[in-house]
Write a structure and sequence with these properties.
Elements lengths: L1 H24 L3 H18 L11 H20 L3 H33 L4 H12 L3 H11 L5 H24 L5 H28 L6 H14 L1
């Protein structure tokens, strides 16, 4: 147990160092955290051993997944339906281009120039075309772009890019079984039911020190992630 607390303190300490570097040099905190993590991993691996900075532990993966899910949810909450109705053409165009151009380009390089087989080349193209909504949202928040129509349009385009990645991966690599049908039905029911049920539930049980709203939102996100 002591080792876990040390690893948590180490990760949070590196995050603090990244935040101070970002503030000092006026660069993105998300970018700085990635660079600091890469450097720390390399230094630890060549000195005291990579075990001290293991990212394969289940609790590390759980916390990382929870953070990514929460940031993606917050990014989605920033999308303004009115802005999206006015800017849906721009968002769709940017999102489609940001997915198709890297996907086709990386696939062509891997298949024709590097001589990879078809499936690995496709996987490389699709994977490298994906974007991180969580990272984009963090940068938008940091510079205040999330409050502008431009920033909200970019966030919508990021979601379209990720949607293209997920759908393409499913069509190319994932077998469609009865579990896929159950998943689609569950997600559809959640998309229809949650927006209607959530205000009613919050009105009845929310507004208390127990923070029912936060618990409910995390429950819904974890259930959808499961």
């Amino acid at each position: 147990m002591t080792g876990i607390w040390f690893q948590v303190a180490l990760i949070l300490g590196l995050a603090l160092i990244a935040a101070m570097i970002a503030a000092r040099f006026r660069i993105s905190t998300a970018l700085t955290e990635i660079i600091v993590g890469m450097c720390a991993r390399t230094i630890f691996a060549t000195t005291v051993g990579a075990e001290i900075f293991s990212v394969q532990e289940p609790w590390v993966k759980t916390l990382a997944g929870l953070g990514a899910i929460a940031l993606t949810f917050l990014a989605g909450a920033e999308l303004d339906p009115d802005v999206f109705k006015m800017k849906w053409k721009e968002a769709a165009s940017v999102g489609a281009a940001s997915f198709l151009a890297p996907a086709i380009g990386c696939w062509a390089v891997a298949y024709y120039l590097l001589g990879w087989e078809s499936s690995p080349a496709l996987l490389a193209g699709i994977a490298l075309a994906a974007t991180s909504v969580a990272v984009v949202y963090t940068v938008m928040m940091e510079y205040g772009f999330n409050r502008t129509d431009f920033g909200k349009t970019i966030l919508a385009a990021c979601f379209i890019t990720d949607l293209g990645t997920v759908v393409t991966l499913g069509l190319v690599f994932a077998p469609f079984t009865w579990k896929t049908a159950v998943f689609v039905a569950a997600v559809g029911a959640a998309f229809v039911g949650l927006p209607r049920a959530t205000p009613v539930i919050f009105a009845k049980f929310g507004g208390r020190p127990s923070e029912f709203e936060t618990k409910f939102l995390f429950f819904a996100l974890m259930a959808l992630g499961a």
